[in-house]
From TrEMBL:
Protein's organism: Peribacillus butanolivorans
Protein name: Glycosyltransferase family 4 protein
InterPro entries linked: Glyco_trans_1
Domain of life: Bacteria
Domain Glycosyl transferase family: 205-361
Lineage summary: Bacteria, Bacillati, Bacillota, Bacilli, Bacillales
GO molecular function, one term: glycosyltransferase activity
A Pfam family the protein falls into: Glycos_transf_1
Gene3D superfamilies given in the database record: Glycogen Phosphorylase B
Length: 401
């Protein structure tokens, strides 16, 4: 049975790409027939490793487009690419990337799939598949965020269309409970399948570096502005410690301005993106998660896997399902910057507690290793081994490159 994963851009960085590749690489190595449908491609070389046994289909390759191509086909494609999408939900955070051109390409490829499993990885894709996928295809929608954070329009569409999915994979117990209640009148089976971690390259941190680390997209959700506010308090008492923030995004300039405003330019460093966060974690003594909300918080698991204790806001909804407060990390009242700073300082001045949290964290995160999560995916695949052999449906008269 072919298993297809529909993603935004498999060549990019970010938590969804990382978790999709953890699972698909595992399944490919286990002998499954895996295909990734990537709507976009914005990089020549993938940010994360893709197993060579995985077939990757790119619908809109931005990297390879020839700017000097003036053929009729290209001119039509260019015109369509400037027209707003009609099939992607307008509340999708990446809606502005989609167009009428990507609508046509996505609709066409979905309509040619007549068997197997299709895994969709964002709300707009879950909705799209529930509306347009052929009936013979088993659809597993993934939810990486909690229902409460979505705009009202997206909430209404989720309730209306998710009931037509075969499965909905959620990341936390609370999300599983919420979606079971919301979708109780549909056929969809809601299952908790947490994100997984691959085998990392970094060694366990010795915890002796005066370094705090954070990582993620530089967007408001991740709360790096709150982290810098907290570190301003920390810096007064511990000027010899540094904060390194890894990642890229639209908030970079604003965050740099905040660093300059507080004269932290020798103490807080925006490091840019890295393909090997595990190696960087092995050089740090504390991980700080300052998010305003999280679907899961995979980087918490990665930090704990490297033996780095975590201080995290107890934001909705993932951190509290990973961290046991004052056992293998610290959960801070959501949004309380002063308490966050105090918790950082408590660990900074107490090596023995850091060591204790590290040892307990290393044991705790074994439940998220890919060998365990991969088996859950294999169980779902085995439940859906039936497929059809009908001929592909011709739709919209072919594709436009």
């Amino acid at each position: 049975m072919k298993i297809r994963f529909l993603v935004f851009d498999i060549y990019g960085m970010g938590g969804t790409v990382r978790t999709v590749l953890n699972v698909t690489n595992y399944l490919a190595q286990s002998g499954y027939d895996i295909e990734i449908i990537s709507v976009f491609r914005y990089r020549k070389v993938p940010f994360f490793e893709i197993d060579p046994r995985i077939k990757v289909v790119v619908l809109h390759d931005v990297v390879s487009r020839r700017k000097d191509d003036t053929s009729l086909k290209t001119r039509i494609a260019n015109k369509l690419s400037k027209m707003k999408s009609k099939l992607i939900h307008t509340d999708d955070e990446g809606y502005h990337f989609f167009s009428l051109l990507t609508d046509i390409k996505l609709y066409n490829i979905i309509k040619t799939i007549n068997s197997g499993i299709l895994v969709t990885t964002r709300p707009s894709f879950n909705i799209f598949a529930s509306k347009y996928a052929n009936k013979e295809v088993r659809i597993i929608g993934q939810e990486h965020l909690n229902f409460s954070i979505y705009p009202e329009g997206m909430k209404k569409s989720i309730i209306k269309h998710y009931v037509k999915l075969d499965y909905l994979a959620t990341l936390t117990d609370e999300d599983t409970k919420d979606y079971n209640e919301l979708l109780k009148d549909g056929k969809v089976e809601v299952r908790k399948i947490t994100n997984s971690i691959p085998n990392l390259q970094g060694v366990v941190s010795p915890l002796d570096s005066k370094t705090i680390i954070a990582a993620g997209r530089l967007v408001p959700q991740k709360g790096f502005d709150l982290l810098i506010e907290a570190f301003k308090i920390v810096n007064h008492q511990y000027p010899d410690w540094k904060l390194k923030i890894f990642g890229g995004g639209r908030e970079k300039e604003n965050l740099q301005d905040l660093i300059t405003k507080y004269k932290l330019y020798n103490h807080v460093i925006l490091m840019g993106s890295t393909q090997h966060i595990d190696i960087e974690l092995s050089k740090a003594s504390i991980y700080a998660l300052s998010s305003r909300f999280e679907g899961f918080g995979m980087v918490i698991v990665e930090a704990m896997q490297c033996g780095v204790p975590v201080v995290s806001f107890d934001c909705p909804k993932g951190p509290s399902e990973i961290i046991s407060h004052n056992e293998d990390g610290i959960l801070v009242e959501d949004g309380n910057v002063e308490k966050f700073a105090e918790s950082l300082m408590a660990l900074m001045e107490d090596f023995e507690t850091r060591k204790e949290f590290s040892e307990k964290g290393l044991e705790s995160v074994k439940r998220f290793e890919i060998d365990n999560i991969g088996k859950i995916w294999e169980d779902i695949i085995k439940e859906n081994t039936h497929s059809t052999n009908k001929q592909p449906i011709n739709s919209l008269g072919g594709t436009i490159n």
